[in-house]
What we know:
Layout: E1 4-14, E2 17-28, E3 32-37, H1 43-51, E4 58-62, E5 69-72, H2 84-89, H3 94-104, H4 109-114, H5 118-130, H6 144-156, E6 162-166, H7 174-186, E7 190-194, H8 198-204, E8 207-212, E9 215-220, H9 223-256, H10 264-282, E10 303-314, E11 316-327, E12 331-335, H11 342-350, E13 357-362, E14 368-371, H12 384-389, E15 394-397, E16 400-403, H13 404-410, H14 427-438, E17 445-449, H15 457-469, E18 473-477, H16 481-487, E19 490-495, E20 498-503, H17 506-522, H18 530-558, H19 562-565, H20 568-597
Parallel strand pairs: 3-7, 3-8, 5-6, 6-7, 12-18, 12-19, 14-17, 17-18
Antiparallel strand pairs: 1-2, 1-4, 8-9, 10-11, 10-13, 15-16, 19-20
Helix pairs in contact: 9-10, 17-18, 17-20, 18-20
Amino acid sequence: MSEALVLHQIHLSIANQTLLKDVNLVLPLPSKTAIIGANGTGKSTLIHMLSGNISPDQGAMNWPSHCHIEVLDQNPQLQSKDTIFSCIARGLGERGDAIAQWHLNPEDVETINNMDGWPLIQSIEACLREFNLASDHLISTLSEGQKRKVAFARAVISQPDVILLDEPTNHLDMSTIDWLIQWCQNFKGSLIIVSHDRYFIDQTCHNIIEIDHQSMMRWSGNFSTHQQRKIAYLQDLEKARDRLDIRLKEEQRWLERGVTARRRRNMGRLRALDDLKKQRQALNRNDRTIQLSNQKTTHAAQKLMQFKQVSFAYEKNILSNFNFNLMKGDHIGIIGPNGCGKSTFIQLMMGTLAPTSGEIIRSDSLNIVYFDQKRATLDLSKTLYDNVGGGLSHIEIEGKKKHIISYLEDFLFTPDRINTPMKRFSGGEKHRALLAKLFLQPANCYILDEPTNDLDIETIEALETFLIASKAAVIVVSHDRTFIDHMAHKTLFYNQNQFIEYAGGYEDAILQGAICSEIKSESSPKKKNVNKEDYKARRKIEDKITKEESKLKALEDRLTVPEVYNDIEKITEIKKKIKVQSTLIEALYDQWSLFDSN
């Protein structure tokens, strides 16, 4: 029999809140498994339990004997005075600490000789090369994404059998996430991953564990497969509820006919009725979904903002002679490596930074609401009630008055928590509170900096739906490619002191950029097999054109449906999508025509 992680009758609670109740699970190892669930259901607490940092209140947890486990926390603790080399070395325990000290004082070779430390030093140097890290850089000088990468290297250096990862893609740029995906795919051991990144889960995991209603359910397959099976599961659950409701009504009618319960032959039927009620109660999921709503979009000019020959430099050039127009209703994803200047670009848009040269023209009607990933506008010492409602019992939303408790319930906050200080909420709950606060403000432009960090998948999908339907301009900086793909009409990719504009989402931008690169490289006279490679690249464009033209036709066909052509708002929204789709197709045809000009 293969080795497995076994949980038996686990009961786990924290701060008087039950997270898991009577949970049984067998997870065969090695396995690459994602843990998903709503914010507050205990995903991170489960990671702490699996690592042995905390114990369950009841039940037993058994790993295979001699199983070596390492953890990458959501907020890894690193010593700021360490170099990257020293930090990774500390992942090797006491001998690693000695090697870290040697790295600060390389003349002390005697200690290394006595402990036979040279093979370990070679392992650390190999790890530095694998992770593309500079050994002598201080931890204090690194970005959050770089620190996370160092922490990951520290977890890997001891060659664990199992790595527990809590939100590993947070603070990473997309190129680093791609690297991490490949690393996880090649890892021979087990990975148990808490993540909200649907693409990352799809690419790395073949098991899903979902925490829901104090229980855990294991699903085979990646996230996309889980979504399909979950729909079927919920449909079956609904049918089971309906069948039990019918039986309960029949038994209740029997009881109401005045049958004497004291008769022995009726006692068994009464006990069966109690059992039926318990079964029906167990099927009551009490599912609530987040309901995002906001103030009506304020009046906006057609052109909200214009960058004219804008340059900005701070220690290095970030923008050079950049031109850009933000139009009413634009939905834009901003993509680039960590440290390239995405946050600087946002601050230039908001006016908190001024350009080194050039001009930024803002419409008088521009009204920006800004989502800051650091949540600086939340006062952690104040309650949820005071943070969101400012002490008011009623707020106005979509032109109607609403009680603040009812509004917060739309964001999945129960009435018993409204007077809880914000510092006691999880990261995802703080994110939800910030969304609730921001959506009370009238706006015609939303600027969102990494809005999906810490949110659960259900809330991310609700936010996507909200933004897609929004008539305001939306600018999003995000490492979540699925989110960008679903939300964005266009993307700005950072490259060489410029943001290059592409039609569509992340995948469309990658395809357009890759095709342009292929065309440039194939047009080089030094390249061999030009005709063969030209043909492949050209066919790739043609296939993409066919696919996108089918999407365009589907949009145009929708305009002829009665429920659409009688609805001005739906017509306007579909025409906007048609314009974006047409722009994408034109760009593809431009790239296709370059082959004929060569």
